[in-house]
Design brief:
Blueprint: E1 2-5, E2 16-19, E3 29-39, H1 41-47, E4 64-72, E5 86-90, E6 99-103, E7 107-108, H2 116-119, H3 123-135, E8 143-146, H4 152-164, E9 167-172, H5 175-183, E10 188-191, H6 196-203, E11 209-214, H7 221-227, E12 228-236, H8 249-254, E13 258-261, H9 269-282, H10 284-288, E14 297-301, H11 305-313, E15 320-324
Parallel strand pairs: 8-9, 8-11, 9-10, 11-12, 12-13, 14-15
Antiparallel strand pairs: 1-2, 3-4, 3-6, 3-15, 4-5, 5-7
Helix pairs in contact: 3-4, 3-9
This protein binds NADP nicotinamide-adenine-dinucleotide phosphate (NAP).
């Protein structure tokens, strides 16, 4: 089968389309014929050598895919999945390939009314957003901030937080991305190149933000802690702005604030399976009824994986980048 690996870390030219033996499903696993695979920012980091896959996950890139169940391994006979079923998979690795093996708990049905190529870009962002907004206990009436509202995580976060009933602030880097954030429900869309802090504070009527889903890390640590409301939660999931900053513990203590950092990829299968069930129960119905619209996609065939990485890396992409692998 065709698969994408990175023999030596580097730029997009380091991505190698190669022929690998077909994986076999072990106990509790399914073999999936991949139709499409989502491209995530973490894949760029892995390609550069900064984000190695968890032990045993293999060298093929790709954290999510859509496709069809082709074969079930031993101990999977709970009746939920049969060969031929369309499915989505949350992966530790392996989505950029003709076939991938995945624990059955990390399979989900596609949301109703969404084709398999579009759905390939939904799993990783839905799982990340839902699991982190659960941890942050975001509730109706609270103020929520996410950066990069027109990106993969940001576009899902805006829509899911609105569906919960939160007041949503988003940042983005260009006028068309800001318009997109408004079009999917952001109450405030403001450029991160201008005074977004004052605008967000105004939105909260000076009380501060209850939950921040942070894809930037160190760059905004001081600003974020300064913006938190009493009992506010800052959940760090991305480190695009660096890993080390200064934390004002005095302010955190006064507001009884919390700073949390999490990653989805390294969680054990049981936890990922629980997150998948949560996505199925709480996000897919919102996608099916139109409350959450899949983000726009830029698509590339698997063999043009280098161009796909360049597109995401350019910062110009709106929504998701997706690799098409085989016929839906
Ligand atoms: N911890 C986890 O489990 C987990 C899971 C999934 C993703 N993540 C992380 O989440 C982040 C987003 O991933 P993604 O796949 O959604 O990538 P993406 O679509 O490329 O989104 C990145 C976003 O960051 C925004 N951004 C760039 N520079 C910024 C700045 N100076 N200030 C504010 N925003 C800025 C961009 O906004 P513009 O495009 O408007 O410039 C873009 O929308 C990545 O760091 C990824 O590693 C973490």
């Amino acid at each position: 089968m065709l698969a994408v690996t990175v023999p030596e870390p580097g730029g997009p030219e380091a991505l190698t389309v190669t022929d690998l033996p077909m994986p076999r499903p072990g106990p509790g696993e399914a073999l999936i014929r991949v139709v499409a695979a989502g491209v995530n920012r973490a894949d760029l980091l892995q390609r550069q050598g900064h984000y190695p896959p968890p032990p045993g996950a293999g060298d093929v890139l790709g954290l999510e895919c859509s496709g069809y169940v082709e074969e079930l391994g031993p101990d999977t006979a709970n009746g939920q999945w049969t060969a031929g079923d369309p499915c989505l998979a949350l992966l530790a690795a392996g989505g950029y390939a003709g076939h991938v093996v995945v624990p059955v708990g990390q399979l989900l049905p596609p949301p109703e009314g969404v084709d398999l190529v579009t759905a390939a870009g939904l799993v990783e962002v839905a799982a990340t957003v839902v699991s982190n907004l659960d941890i942050a206990e975001l509730k109706a009436g609270q103020v929520f901030l996410v950066h990069g509202g027109a990106g993969g995580i940001g576009s899902m976060a805006i829509q899911y937080a609105k569906a919960i009933g939160a007041t949503v602030a988003a940042t983005a880097g260009s006028p068309d991305k800001l318009s997109y954030c408004r079009s999917i429900g952001a109450d405030l869309a403001v450029s991160y190149k201008h005074d977004w802090i004052a605008a967000v504070r105004d939105l909260s009527a000076g009380r501060g933000v209850n939950v921040i889903l942070d894809v930037m890390g160190a760059k905004y640590l001081g600003e974020h802690v300064g913006l938190l409301a009493t009992d506010g939660r800052l959940v760090v999931i991305g480190l695009q702005g660096g890993t080390q900053g200064t934390l004002d513990l005095g302010r955190l203590l006064r507001i009884r604030g919390r700073v949390i950092a999490t990653t989805l990829r390294s969680r054990p299968v049981e936890q990922k399976s629980t997150v998948c069930r949560r996505v199925e129960e709480s996000v897919w119905p919102l996608v099916a009824d139109g409350s959450i619209a899949p983000a726009p996609q830029t698509r590339f065939p698997l063999r043009e994986v280098g161009a796909a990485h360049r597109q995401l890396e350019s910062g110009d992409n709106l929504g998701k980048v997706v690799l098409t692998v085989s016929k839906p």
